[in-house]
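Hey, I'm writing a tutorial for new members on how sequence and structure tokens pair up, and I'd like a real worked example in the thread rather than a made-up one. If someone can provide the structure for the chain below, I'll link this post from the tutorial.
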Amino acid sequence: MSTVLVTVTGHDRPGVTGELFTALATHSVEVLDIDQAVIRGQLTLGVLVRTPESAEPIKADVERAMRSMGMTVRVGVDQPEDEIRRSATHAIVVLGRPLQATAIGELALRFGTLGVNIESIRRIADYPVTGLELTVSAPEDDALRSAVIDVAAAAGVDIAVERIGIARRAKRLIVFDVDSTLITGEVIEMLADHTGTRSKVEEITAAAMRGELDFAESLRARVSMLAGLDAAVLDQVAASLVLTPGARTTIRTLKRLGFRCGVVSGGFTQVISHLVTELDLDFAAANTLEVRDGRLTGRVVGEIVDRPGKAQALARFAAQHGVGLAQTVAVGDGANDIDMLSAAGLGIAFNAKPVVAGFADTTLNQPFLDPVLFILGISRDEIEAADAADGTLRRVPLE
């Protein structure tokens, strides 16, 4: 038995693969492996076959068929079968705006020193960031992740690593933090604008998000500064919320795939309820401001949704929908998100404070939420094909 590797390159056009296999079909060959890539209209097609015949007639027929199509062909004989294909162990998504060759080169060099082999590469996004998805076979998980962290920091790109397997495709529930994650601002600071205490509130919020203050205590201190505020301001602030770019696309796409989508926030139910309605979310957990005689009392009622409370809310929502924690995704930016990010099957730190990033599975340092989809293996082409089908496709010009 001989093995024959046929590699075809040239301008992609209909019929190339058909002509190649028509030539192969005249011989007793067994197909062992096949790979194809098209980049900007240029085709590279590789086919590995095994045959009990002499390889020379196969080579001659294949070369003649491909020349007739204007293609270049290379035929190798007696390829070692034990190198047919390795099993990929990890999916790596590299995101940049722009994505420089330096980042890919440095990543590939580090892979070489670790014995990590790149099995395939595909472009997964061209908007609003450039994204590549690499599948690799890696002998050691921790060494791979450590190298990725180093390269991402040095090259200024985002790199997500996930093990390949059914678990990656089995995510079914996602929760977002709200302030500075699903929306661009901080609700409590917007409310404080109406009481003249914004600067004090901002100072406390920043310290709490860095993990320097207990969240529950910081929340009570900030809410106390809102005492006497007309409750009608809550609706005004809710109406002025600005979604993070890509938020609608992300939630719309995930709901098409059957995801349960929700928010878990240290903010306030009276404001969050507007987002739940606007985005058709499946659940929400947040704090409730006490209102008496149409004005805020400066207190919250019920249990505070703090750092442990966020993780508990994630677990509660997952249980309600029959979804295991391994099938959940959490996205957040502050220290009060740490337990939630750690508990989820995939925790994504979104433009997060340094103390948070170390507890997440991956970080995303882009001003868009769409890349959450790319990390999950959903391509921009797939997103836009679905949007085009229901008339929601549009690309907003980037600054």
